[in-house]
Specification:
It is elongated, with a radius of gyration of 15 Å. Helices cover 80% and strands 0% of the residues. The longest helix has 27 residues. The protein is mainly alpha-helical.
């Protein structure tokens, strides 16, 4: 019987961070967007959270928990683009993609040992 190797802790933190941000993005930000809130200054942050939650944070978080190598590669690539984009447009939301990005980079060797 094959023993299942546990996912590295930093990768778990990154994946769950992404899932929580995705849920917040959909559950909190979507009603704000629908009701027309946020004003001119918050429009970028609201759009960023909503669309990145729907199309990136939730799926990538779940695929990382499933130990998919392709998910790690895509996640690093998209986080690089998100970090560059947030530096150009809105520095204060940089923490959203930066935290899991750093955890994934620090834990890459351990992740590749257990990834499928």
């Amino acid at each position: 019987m094959e023993e299942k190797v546990s996912l590295p802790i930093k990768t778990k933190i990154a994946a769950w961070w992404m899932i929580v941000i995705g849920i917040i993005g959909i559950g909190v930000v979507m009603p704000i967007k629908i009701l027309g809130g946020g004003g001119a200054h918050g429009a970028f942050a609201i759009d960023f959270l909503l669309y990145s939650s729907l199309f990136f944070f939730l799926p990538a978080g779940f695929f990382l928990l499933e130990r998919k190598k392709l998910a790690w590669e895509i996640t690093i690539g998209v986080f690089s683009l998100l970090i560059i984009g947030t530096l150009l447009f809105s520095f204060w939301i940089l923490i959203i993609p930066a935290v899991p990005f750093i955890f994934l980079l620090l834990d890459r060797k351990n992740f590749w040992k257990v990834a499928k």
